[in-house]
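User: quick one, sequence for these tokens?
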């Protein structure tokens, strides 16, 4: 890992140097080149062309002409030409602009040789001896070429060049060394992060210091490890609760099956008379119904969790609906002598619910308040209008629950502390009620304290 990272640093350094060299070459050509028909040429090309052009000039006495190849070059590059005699008057021209004069003084020729471009056109001057006199050649180029002469002390510059070269080499060496050291430092940091990730996968992670350049990365790793530990703890807890719940369900299923089998064997022997047989049959039927309830609860909770159970909602008069449900609960033989009351200030309230499914949730909450509290407990159900819709409160003045019990109350694999007192429960009633409420777009919350009773609030949106 460390060697690979150093190789990458070296490759990056070389790439940066190549990029800098390419940029320097590109900048040089951008500044010191001009376009011409055959491509790009250095800006010094017009001066060389002008100096070499007299080779195509032919003169006889006071008459001057240009060879055909010279005229072809002028046409090829789009250049203009003016040839002056010794007195500065025009002797020959080709493609000459109208603004060029017919004659020049010596001062004008000297100024023309050094003046920069004008109107996007540059003029270069050369001279040649042909025939009986000296001819001056003016060549116009369609390029804005600057003419600047730099003068310097050659001896001083000659001494400074090695110094500049050494300084540049030193700077590059320092930069390379700094980059290499930075790579080593970065390699150590990344190696620590890599070790941390590997340790987290083995659950052996030690928190990294959240400071320096990689403080955010270290903080993210520390947070990831905390989440992994929490997830692992939650998974272990869920698995433990699942095993406990399966053991409870197995026990609860065996409990009614034992009398069913025992009484069935007695009936099979034929030793029971008519009245006794009817008693045995009633016991078998009661335990069979309890077994069916357990199985239905188990099936329902998984149907709700997987979304396999359709929710067919329709408008329902909620207050009337709750009253009828409470009457049905109060008429159950097990709760006929219990204190159940209803309270609401609203004349009526319409809610969009699945009547059969919602009845299961509300009935579970009411029955839960009855069977897990002393017989003299008063259960009060009220309906009110909440922020997003209806709110149904199931309040009792019973024994209440601790904060830890409230936190795990709606867990599917959790059974309350009163399980031994009420062995007929499946531990799924409140979890089913919660799932049904959420299926309707609502929720269930609980407020309770030991010795002060409990209140379940079922909200609908």
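Assistant:
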């Amino acid at each position: 890992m460390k060697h690979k990272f150093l190789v990458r640093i070296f490759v990056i350094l070389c790439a940066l140097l190549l990029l800098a060299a390419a940029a320097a070459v590109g900048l040089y050509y951008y500044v010191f080149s001009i376009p011409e028909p055959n491509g790009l040429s250095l800006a010094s090309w017009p001066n060389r062309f002008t100096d070499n052009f007299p080779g195509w000039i032919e003169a006889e006495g006071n008459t001057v002409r240009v060879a055909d190849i010279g005229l072809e070059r002028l046409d090829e590059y789009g250049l203009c030409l003016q040839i002056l005699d010794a007195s500065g008057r025009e002797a020959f021209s080709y493609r000459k602009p109208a603004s060029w004069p017919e004659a020049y003084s010596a001062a004008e020729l000297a100024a023309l040789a050094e003046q920069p471009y004008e109107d996007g056109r540059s003029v270069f001057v050369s001279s040649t001896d042909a025939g009986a006199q000296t001819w001056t050649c003016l060549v116009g180029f369609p390029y804005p070429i600057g003419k600047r002469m730099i003068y310097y002390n050659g001896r001083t510059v000659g001494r400074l060049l090695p110094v500049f070269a050494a300084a540049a080499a030193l700077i590059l060496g320092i930069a390379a060394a700094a980059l290499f050291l930075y790579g080593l430092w970065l390699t150590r940091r990344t190696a620590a992060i890599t070790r941390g990730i590997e340790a987290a996968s083995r659950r052996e992670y030690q928190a990294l210091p959240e400071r320096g350049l990689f403080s955010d990365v270290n903080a993210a790793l520390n947070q990831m490890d905390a989440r992994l530990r929490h997830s692992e703890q939650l998974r272990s807890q869920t698995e433990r609760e699942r095993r406990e719940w399966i053991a409870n369900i197995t026990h609860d299923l065996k409990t009614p099956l034992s009398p069913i089998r025992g009484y069935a064997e007695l009936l099979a022997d034929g030793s029971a008379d008519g009245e006794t047989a009817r008693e045995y049959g009633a016991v078998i039927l009661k335990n069979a119904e309890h077994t069916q309830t357990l199985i239905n609860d188990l099936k329902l909770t998984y149907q709700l969790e997987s979304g396999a159970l359709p929710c067919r909602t329709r408008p329902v008069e909620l207050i009337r609906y709750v009253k009828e449900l409470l009457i049905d609960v109060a008429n159950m033989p097990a709760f006929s002598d219990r204190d159940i009351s209803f309270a609401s200030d609203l004349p009526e309230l319409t809610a969009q619910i699945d009547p059969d499914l919602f009845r299961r949730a509300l009935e579970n909450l009411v029955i839960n308040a009855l069977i897990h509290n002393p017989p003299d407990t008063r259960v009060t159900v009220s309906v009110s209008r909440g922020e997003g819709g209806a709110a149904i409160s199931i309040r009792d003045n019973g024994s209440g629950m601790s904060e830890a019990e409230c936190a795990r109350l709606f867990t599917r694999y959790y059974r309350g502390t009163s399980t031994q007192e009420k062995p007929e429960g499946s531990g799924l009633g409140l979890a089913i009620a919660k799932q049904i409420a959420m299926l309707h777009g609502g929720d269930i919350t609980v407020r309770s304290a030991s010795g002060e009773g409990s209140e379940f609030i079922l909200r609908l949106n």
